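[step 3/7] inverse_fold.run input=structure_tokens len=266
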């Protein structure tokens, strides 16, 4: 990509994104600029070949795509600070949870190209499930730029902003649900006599492999489930137990609840 990438806030997410872009070759390290109020974070960025700079203003002057990667409560502050230096070439990408396009626009100005992204924690291992929505003057070319970048660290889908709370309930909180599931699967293995470490590896690998089958075959998960449930077998007996416990409704209810909380807080 011929664009230069900037990070305001060089924390965990910024590092994961920058390393992913470099590893997948979408951007070379010398075209990445980052700043942080904590000096050690800039050293980390220097350590993998990118350019640490001294101020948020300098990031904006040096780069075209600017990631706002500070904690949500600081987003407006840094945007107001750099606002006088924003130009038409800039695409502002906020990854801050819960900060709406309207509040980004209020802080950065009406005429800015704004993209709001909701990534999730597996971004840290290059497997995020993210969604984006556009605001201000952003158009398909900005969406295309952001898609190319996020393809390096997982997958991204474009949605209307009103659906971002649903995305937060699914892929934002989803890792916590899956971690809980992996822990519970491992507990079951330990209950049946497996050593903890083997049980946990088997549980995590089972989730990874099953997710891969859904993504790679394109088959409905129900059809894949049918393929492993033989008549009167142990797997259908296990599925029956989960259905008795209301596992599907529990997943749906958890997301509904989060959607309501999300709407209440934004
Ligand atoms: P982090 O604390 O690791 O990074 C934020 C960095 O911003 C820190 O290094 C901090 O020193 C720096 N900072 C604070 N004020 C600054 C300022 N005025 N100018 C420049 N730098 C400043 O946090 P993180 O986990 O990387 O999260 C960053 C953003 O990503 C948050 O808004 C969060 O909502 C969003 N997010 C994170 C996750 C996740 O899994 N961590 C998932 C989804 C969204």
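[step 3/7] decode complete -> sequence:
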């Amino acid at each position: 990509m011929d664009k230069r990438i900037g990070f305001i806030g060089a924390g965990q997410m910024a590092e994961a994104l920058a390393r992913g872009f470099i590893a997948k070759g979408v951007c070379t390290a010398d075209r990445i600029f980052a700043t942080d109020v904590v000096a050690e974070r800039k050293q980390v960025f220097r350590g993998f070949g990118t350019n640490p700079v001294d101020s948020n203003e300098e990031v904006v002057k040096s780069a075209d795509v600017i990631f706002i990667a500070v904690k949500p409560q600081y987003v407006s502050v840094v945007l107001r600070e750099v606002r006088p230096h924003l130009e038409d070439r800039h695409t502002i990408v906020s990854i801050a949870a819960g900060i709406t396009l309207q509040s980004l626009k209020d802080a950065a100005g009406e005429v800015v190209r704004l993209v709001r992204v909701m990534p999730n924690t597996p971004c840290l291992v290059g497997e995020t499930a993210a969604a984006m929505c556009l605001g201000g003057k952003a158009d398909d070319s900005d969406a295309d730029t952001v898609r190319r970048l996020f393809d390096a660290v997982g997958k991204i889908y474009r949605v209307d902003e009103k659906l971002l709370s649903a995305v937060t309930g699914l892929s934002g909180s989803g890792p916590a649900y899956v971690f809980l599931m992996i822990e519970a699967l491992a507990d079951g293995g330990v209950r049946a006599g497996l050593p903890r470490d083997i049980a946990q590896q088997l549980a995590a690998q089972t989730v990874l492999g099953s997710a891969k089958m859904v993504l790679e075959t394109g088959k409905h998960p129900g059809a894949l489930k049918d393929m492993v449930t033989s008549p009167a077998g142990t797997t259908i007996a296990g599925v029956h137990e989960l259905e008795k416990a209301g596992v599907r409704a529990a997943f749906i209810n958890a997301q509904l609840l989060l959607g309501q909380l999300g709407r209440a807080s934004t």
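[step 4/7] annotate
The first strand starts at residue 5 and ends at 8.
The mean pLDDT is 94.
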